[in-house]
Design the sequence.
């Protein structure tokens, strides 16, 4: 005599994955919004121009890679993708490689890593809430 | 944070004849380098600092970054600077006035050069997680 239980593991796993995927996207958006806020504060501006207009959230191309928060520089032919220089700091003898501009040293103005760290604990709560809501909904 | 920066600089300048201090000729600057600073040099700053409390203690959890820059057609100088920075600061013990120093652990390392300059700038950004603790007042 055999006794079988159909536990629908595959369906449960897929459904929970969708719930977690939605939560991941939400966390990425939270990080993005905070990164923008920090950058605005450091740049002393209220408008979404320049680097501030270059933020977006995208799904990773890697399997189970989650979501990525992107920020790059102005997409002009002479421009560098300078967001990483802004985040990490660098030496720019001539900004954008333009030798007619004055020489500068570029101190770091981190905005991505502070935003990611700020949301570290909130992220756990978002995942927890998302799974709770999914379980309650059956 | 000033106390931590001071402790880092004291640790850096404790050995002047060899090691990282000698390799950058004493040029390690807090937050930013002056215009026209000679190469090679190092800049250190706090990326983010979190404060935490429990029943008896207060802790400060820093993410610090060290940027090292060399202007050289060869990447050897920058590579050597990276190694001597690691030798000096990996898991080092600091004396931070008023705080117990618990951790100085290296995190990510990013190549951070500007190869369009002539000669090119070769550099690295090195992250350290630093944990300090003291009794709550």
Sequence:
């Amino acid at each position: 005599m055999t006794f079988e239980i159909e536990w629908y593991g595959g369906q449960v796993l897929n459904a929970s994955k969708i719930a977690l995927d939605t939560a991941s996207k939400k966390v990425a958006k939270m990080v993005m919004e905070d990164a923008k806020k920090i950058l605005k504060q450091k740049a002393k501006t209220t408008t979404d121009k320049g680097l501030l207009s270059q933020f977006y959230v995208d799904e990773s191309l890697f399997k189970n890679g989650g979501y990525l928060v992107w920020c790059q520089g102005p997409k002009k032919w002479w421009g560098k993708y300078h967001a990483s220089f802004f985040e990490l700091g660098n030496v720019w003898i001539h900004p954008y490689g333009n030798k007619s501009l004055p020489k500068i040293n570029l101190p770091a103005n981190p905005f991505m890593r502070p935003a990611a760290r700020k949301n570290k604990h909130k992220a756990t709560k978002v995942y927890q809430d998302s799974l709770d809501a999914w379980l309650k909904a059956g | 944070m000033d106390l931590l920066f001071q402790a880092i600089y004291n640790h850096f300048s404790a050995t002047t004849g060899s090691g990282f201090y000698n390799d950058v000729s004493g040029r390690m600057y807090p937050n930013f380098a002056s215009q026209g600073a000679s190469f090679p040099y190092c800049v250190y700053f706090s990326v983010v600092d979190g404060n935490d409390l429990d029943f008896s203690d207060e802790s400060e959890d820093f993410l610090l970054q060290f940027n090292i820059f060399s202007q050289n057609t060869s990447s050897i100088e920058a590579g050597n600077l990276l190694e001597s920075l690691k030798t000096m600061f990996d898991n080092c013990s600091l004396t931070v006035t008023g705080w117990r120093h618990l951790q100085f652990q290296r995190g990510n390392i990013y190549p951070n050069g500007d190869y369009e300059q002539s000669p090119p700038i070769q550099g690295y950004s090195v992250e350290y997680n630093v944990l300090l603790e003291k009794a709550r007042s």
About this structure: Chain A has a mean pLDDT of 82.
